[in-house]
From TrEMBL:
InterPro entries for this protein: AAA+_ATPase, ABC_transporter-like_ATP-bd, ABC_transporter-like_CS, ABC_Transporter_VariousFunc
ABC transporter domain residues: 5-229
Keywords annotated in UniProt: ATP-binding, Nucleotide-binding, Transport
Classification of source organism: Bacteria, Bacillati, Bacillota, Tissierellia, Tissierellales
CDD domains linked: ABC_DR_subfamily_A (cd03230)
Organism: Tissierella simiarum
UniProt GO molecular function: ATP binding
Protein name per UniProt: ABC transporter ATP-binding protein
Amino acid sequence: MEDILRISNISKHFKTFSLSNINISIKENCITGFLGKNGAGKTTLIKIILGLVHKDEGNIVYFNNPNLKKRDIKDRIGVVLDDGYFYDNLTLNQMKNLVSSTYTNWNEKKYKSYIERFRLDEKQIISSLSKGMKMKYALSLALSHNADLLIMDEPTSGLDPEVRKELMNILNEYIQEDGKSVLFSTHITSDLEQIADEIIIINDGKILEQISKDELIEEYRLIKSNNKILEKLNMNDLKLVNKTNYGFSAITDKYEKLRKEFPEIIVERASLEDIFLARTEVLENETNI
């Protein structure tokens, strides 16, 4: 499985924030979830990938070809951004005419099929669209020039569950085509738990981990028991400890050891959100030492 995008030693320094030595790869036929809290650096890195922000150091290889021209790179990347890039006073059709003129592989037939599928009216003014309809329109544009890499920055933020489910279905369809990949940046872990193949976790401008989603979920467990058991445990083995008068729960990657030592402990599958919070808690605690 080839890398469709390879990022090596990328850094970008601002007055109050820095991306530091970023090394990640996006594989073909893979949905890669880019997970981080707001302000962690997700959007900055995406803008560097898209050429909208200049990197200070490092290298990016697109589509396994270090000599690919900027125009060819642009043609092969589809983009859906949370903050949009539309002129609100234009109609959908007028905006489409502007966007389509910038691509060499624009597919009008495919665009029309998405417009019909999403029940969009091309005569409608963009400013009158709901957030969900704007996302569908942006997706229609992004998928209509035969892009091999779809980059999405917080596409489901503020959307209702029905629209989010529809988006997940489309991404699953898209990724079935040979050579297609998705980089899905979000802080909504439930979306990635449904569809992601790999997870990249970024925190405070640093990559904490890139790992298979299934491997990450298998690495941790949610444990529960009474507070007498909690008093006997090594707190260094536990993250996100939640203690009440009736007992406690915590996230741990030492669950096999703890289950042998304390058979009465209840061990359950941890959610991706719990694991993400536990992993970023580790880094923040280390930073504050």
